[in-house]
Write a structure and sequence with these properties.
Elements: E1 5-7, E2 10-13, H1 17-28, E3 33-37, E4 51-53, H2 57-67, H3 71-78, E5 79-85, E6 95-100, H4 102-114, E7 119-123, E8 126-132, E9 135-141, E10 146-148, E11 151-154, E12 163-166, E13 169-171, H5 184-190, E14 195-202, E15 205-207, E16 217-219, E17 244-248, H6 251-259, H7 265-268, H8 282-288, E18 296-301, E19 308-312, H9 320-327, E20 338-340, E21 343-350, E22 367-369, H10 379-397, H11 411-421, H12 446-457, H13 462-484, E23 486-487, H14 491-499, E24 509-510, H15 511-515, H16 537-548, H17 550-567, H18 585-594, H19 599-603, H20 610-629
Parallel strand pairs: 1-10, 2-3, 2-11, 3-7, 11-22
Antiparallel strand pairs: 4-6, 5-6, 8-9, 9-10, 12-13, 12-21, 14-21, 15-19, 15-20, 16-17, 17-18, 18-19, 23-24
Helix pairs in contact: 1-10, 2-10, 2-12, 3-4, 6-9, 12-13, 13-16
């Protein structure tokens, strides 16, 4: 019997948010790439919350865009509502979130992939990795076809041995009833890949016509809208937006849940996988936060061409009858009709400590991994990893060093460093609190931080990079100019200060010191600064942030320098930690298993103490001297 046999540079397994970014990056860098999906309907699918961004996740999308990724551009063309979260707080935690038209988002990403040179999108289930002598050489599909490749990127999302559960109903499918991928796990375990079993869930979708919105709080989008992509013209995203709504559970809801906990597969022991701590099901919330008499629910449209409404905050695996009962206790949902039941989904993923910071497996040359397959949660976390894995697969084949983002230059660096150095026992979610240098890693300056890297790897167009270089020049020049401007206590100055409730001047002052006052900013002081150049809003924003937070920024930049010193202390790949006799046994075991690339990584491994790091530093000096003399 004859089978299809083809050859590519890169194979990407899965076309979710990770797979799309990986495949696009590889193809755009000139590598002949094929991307497999179990269904064309699952390309860039949003099986759970139909939105992009949110707290800290918006940072990831902005960074991905600055590197040359697609997610930001795609949501700018397909959003139906957009809001800047945490706008009343400092700029470090400002984060963009856009409600997506679920169908339009998926279709546009699929068309983008199918229009991309060097990229083939193929519906087929990959069942086996071809690995010889510790090196990946391609994949096989369910049909028996062989696809030879020099690199493979696994982005299987929640499809590996997936099963969906609610009550006593168990369906062996992927999300949204799509086909599960049931064979690849065996090939992975055969190649000594350590697997985990995780779980996530989604709420019911209800018919918009059966909702009483008069009992809910309307949630409107921002005016004006801020785009995700730095390449999007802000004028193009000022559209008529669709409202979302806010409502709450109540004690009656909680009583129904508590009375039926024994029927939830989460509590009956049917569910094996570990769920996400930071996105719990409604039954988990009721149990864990028993002192709360209500929980927020967000009622959000799934798109412009459907009546389905997503009930955010009420994911569940309760039986169908219990779902109806508990949803009907919520104000506005008393008569709601469920279109799709809420369900939990279990799936196979890996322990990501098996990966290098490049997202290549330590023990299988040329095999990369990204997304929920790595034990993370969320579309944005997946897309960010997919981009990095796709870039590094391409760079490897081009004979170049991998692109390694670190904790000091990006949220993506924090995300990947956490995944590969910490043994994640539950789905990992990005949060602003995870980033030590979050004042430096703001979403507004992602282009300044990362565009050079995107340009150098070959993803970001030259004109976009040149625009960022010019933007940075204008910011620096304006900050320098403002620091030299003296403002006298003249009448117009005093009147302006009084209008903003600011203390009047008794003598002259630097303009920069006025900008630093909490009630004032760069734009508000324009009337008393007649020589000010005509600058874009994005440049003015950066000037204002830099001046207001200069002291804090300088402090974090000093911390980064210390961090870099630890990252530059490389650990030889062949080091035998058992030879480091003064290391504690636990530290030896952890270091041997995780094989950190440098002292910075080693210091972040759970179970490795500062004292262990001191011992290791002393040993490395001896090790280097001994090997140098040899």
């Amino acid at each position: 019997m004859s089978y299809v046999e083809e050859s590519y540079d890169v194979v990407v397994i899965g076309a979710g948010h990770a797979g799309c970014e990986a495949a696009l990056a590889s193809a755009r860098m000139g590598l002949n790439t094929i991307c497999f999906t179990v269904s064309m309907d699952s390309v860039a699918l949003m099986p759970c919350n139909p939105n992009i961004g949110g707290s800290s996740k918006g940072h990831l999308v902005r960074e991905l865009d600055a590197l040359g990724g697609q997610m930001g551009i795609n949501i700018d063309h397909t959003f139906i509502q957009s809001k800047m979260l945490n706008s009343s707080k400092g700029p470090a935690v400002h984060s963009l979130r856009a409600q997506a038209d679920k169908s339009a988002y998926s279709l546009r990403m699929r068309k983008t992939m199918q229009d991309t040179d060097n990229l083939t999108l193929r519906q087929a289930e990959v069942t086996e990795l071809i690995v010889n002598n510790g090196k990946v050489e391609g994949v096989k599909t369910l049909s028996g076809a062989t696809y030879h490749a020099k690199a493979v990127v696994i982005c299987t999302g929640t499809y590996l041995r997936a099963r969906c559960l609610y009550g006593d109903v168990i369906e062996h499918t992927g999300p949204n009833g799509l086909k599960a991928a049931n064979h690849l796990t065996q090939s992975l375990t055969d190649n000594n890949v350590e697997m985990n079993r995780f779980k996530t869930g989604t709420p019911a979708r209800v018919d918009s016509r059966s909702i009483d919105y008069s009992k809910m709080e309307i949630q409107l989008g921002d005016n004006p809208v801020v785009p995700f992509s730095f390449s999007t013209n802000p004028d193009d995203v000022q559209i008529e937006q669709v409202p979302c709504y806010l409502t709450y559970t109540n004690e009656k809801t909680h009583e129904i849940i508590r009375a039926n906990l024994d029927r939830s597969p989460m509590y009956s022991g049917v569910i094996e996988g570990t769920g996400p701590r930071y996105c719990p099901s409604i039954e988990d919330k009721v149990v864990r936060f028993a002192d709360k008499n209500r929980h927020q629910l967000f009622v959000e449209p799934e798109g412009l061409n459907t009546n389905e409404m997503y009930i955010g905050g009420m994911s569940s695996s309760m039986p169908e009858d219990v779902q109806y009962a508990m949803y009907h206790t919520v104000p506005g949902l008393e008569n709601c009709k469920i279109v799709r039941n809420a369900y939990a989904i279990e799936y196979d993923c890996i322990n990501a400590t098996q990966l290098k910071a490049s997202l290549e497996f330590k023990n299988i040359d040329g095999l990369f991994a990204a997304g929920q397959f790595n034990g993370s949660s969320g579309y944005e976390e997946a897309a960010a990893q997919g981009l990095v894995a796709g870039i590094n697969a391409a760079l490897k084949l081009l004979g170049k060093e991998p692109m390694i983002l670190d904790r000091s230059n990006s949220y993506i660096g924090v995300l990947i460093d956490d995944l590969v150095t910490k043994e994640t026992k539950e789905p990992y979610r990005m949060m602003t609190s995870r980033a030590e240098y979050r004042l430096l890693l703001r979403q507004d300056n992602a282009d300044i931080r990362l565009s050079k890297i995107g340009y150098e790897v070959g993803l970001l167009p030259k004109e976009r990079y040149e625009h960022v270089v010019e933007k940075e020049r204008l910011i620096n020049e304006e900050v320098a100019r403002v620091k030299e401007i003296n403002i006298g206590a003249r009448k117009e100055v005093q009147e302006l200060l009084e209008s903003y409730g600011s203390i009047p001047l008794s003598n002259g002052i630097k303009l920069v010191d006025l900008i630093r006052r909490p009630e004032l900013d760069y734009d508000k002081l324009a009337p008393i600064d007649p020589d000010r150049p005509n600058l874009s809003k994005e440049v003015r924003e950066e000037v204002n942030i830099y001046i207001k937070y200069e002291g804090y920024l300088s402090r974090q930049e000093k911390q980064v320098k210390q961090f870099k010193k630890l990252e530059q202390k490389l650990i030889p790949t062949d080091i035998d930690y058992d030879d480091v006799s003064s290391l504690r046994i636990e530290a030896r075991q952890k270091l041997t298993k995780l094989r950190p690339a440098n002292i910075g990584q080693a210091s972040r491994i759970s179970g490795v103490s500062p004292a262990d790091i001191s011992v290791l530093l002393v040993y490395l000096e001896t090790y280097k001297s001994k090997n140098a003399s040899v």
